Amino acid sequence: MRTQRAGQATFLPLDTISTKPINDKFRSFARGARLAVDVIQYEPAVERAMLHACGNALVCDTMDVARYVCWERGQEVKAVTLEGTVIHKSGLITGGRSTHGGGKKWEEKDVQGLTRLRDNLVAQLQELNRSKPRGKADENVIAEITRLESAIAVVRDDLSACKSRYNGIKEELKHVERELKKLSPELKKAQTSHSLKRNS
């Protein structure tokens, strides 16, 4: 592949690959969410590879469904929407279709979901500190908290920018409405004058 510049690929040995059993609860966990292994068509010979690659990942009809599963219900699974947006187990969002502004359209519920994840990790860290000395698990939680806090900061900035643009558009609309009100009497006067000239 390197000599032919065919890109990168992952090779999975079917005879030795390890797989975890699918959690059947996700087959009917939420309306509009289905296990990826249930919606992808594949040959029985590669079933072990598909189970290894997909695991309990869910395909969700909309971003709202993905948020519900990952954040409101607190399930640590990867959720992929039909538009390509991915909510990872860590809670971070990647992919998806860009908005008119070229960036991610964040909503209040996105910020709230990330904040809940951060708070949950902080609680886990506090529990670990009470139960045992700091170790590898603590370091992983701290790293996850740091990533989430950075993500929350970016989301808040994007949300603030969106609100500013929205307020600017509202002001422009108000200005246009005021101008229309000013011009309306002149328009009626011109129409009346034109009508009188035609009738004379």
UniProtKB/TrEMBL annotation:
GO terms for biological process: cell division; sister chromatid cohesion. The keyword Ribosomal protein does not apply. InterPro entries: SMC_hinge, SMC_hinge_sf. GO terms for cellular component: cohesin complex; nucleus. Keywords: Cell cycle, Cell division, Mitosis, Nucleus. It comes from the Eukaryota. SUPFAM superfamilies: Smc hinge domain (SSF75553). Residues 2-69 form the SMC hinge domain. Signal peptide: none annotated. GO terms for molecular function: ATP binding; DNA binding. Gene3D superfamilies: 3.30.70.1620. This is SMC hinge domain-containing protein. It comes from Suillus luteus UH-Slu-Lm8-n1.
